């Protein structure tokens, strides 16, 4: 049976490269509120001293070598971005970012995978959301032949952050996550906040309880030494089985693919089990199933800091089924939340 592909291959990096990131560097080094990607360094008041500090900041951010005179050839962030893109190696995590077919909006939304690591969950987002935003799914590292899963949350979030920045040319500002992906979205958003000082928007679709050793609501979900050993044994077992099947030339068989998925899942559980992130300024939408909401809604409200805006919505259904049954309602909540956020941001007083 022929099945029409739902997900498109990765598109090329925007021709302007990381222009928006560089515009942020322009603003920081020139000590101005904002810089447009077509603003000239010299028209913004740049001189030889700020040219040196700006070029040094770009070098440190992208790990490349440049001369200060580069600003003569590329005085705007758009031109500078094209130059940087031509000198910057493709980030390995770029392959994990999958644009979703039908997305025609300009503002990117990154949606991070759940426990399975698959990007196919993003097929359920509807036409309205994709018309308004450029939806990108983030799949897990370790699902394809030859890939090794990331070992901890710092490594996962850093690679997803860099991969998204590489594909879009800007740091991710709207990050969502399905189930366990909600925890990953929180950590990717943290990196955006640390780099830009701007509050990211987090869209958490039925996330697990914070600090849960089982990553789901159960009466006693504390992380114990016994639970940690159990998790580690599964990681070792599935990794050895995966490597053995690969060595025997069976990695692409049905059992080989199944084993690779199990190895990925066990590694992700080890990285995330028992994790409870610290709070930071952000805007959060928590969409909880009625099955999990009693254990998660108030917990996430308590997690939010004074500088965090949070909205919680309980959607009828079980954790495994409610997304499929309520995707239109979930899309509507996401669109309404982001629209209200835009209005709130416009009303905020400008920074001195």
From TrEMBL:
<keyword id="KW-0597">Phosphoprotein</keyword>
<keyword id="KW-0596">Phosphopantetheine</keyword>
<dbReference type="GO" id="GO:0031177">
    <property type="term" value="F:phosphopantetheine binding"/>
</dbReference>
<feature type="domain" description="Carrier">
    <location>
        <begin position="13"/>
        <end position="88"/>
    </location>
</feature>
<dbReference type="InterPro" id="IPR020806">
    <property type="entry name" value="PKS_PP-bd"/>
</dbReference>
<dbReference type="Pfam" id="PF00975">
    <property type="entry name" value="Thioesterase"/>
</dbReference>
<dbReference type="InterPro" id="IPR009081">
    <property type="entry name" value="PP-bd_ACP"/>
</dbReference>
<dbReference type="InterPro" id="IPR036736">
    <property type="entry name" value="ACP-like_sf"/>
</dbReference>
<dbReference type="GO" id="GO:0016740">
    <property type="term" value="F:transferase activity"/>
</dbReference>
<protein>
    <submittedName>
        <fullName>Acyl-CoA transferase</fullName>
    </submittedName>
</protein>
<dbReference type="InterPro" id="IPR029058">
    <property type="entry name" value="AB_hydrolase_fold"/>
</dbReference>
<dbReference type="Pfam" id="PF00550">
    <property type="entry name" value="PP-binding"/>
</dbReference>
<dbReference type="InterPro" id="IPR001031">
    <property type="entry name" value="Thioesterase"/>
</dbReference>
<keyword id="KW-0808">Transferase</keyword>
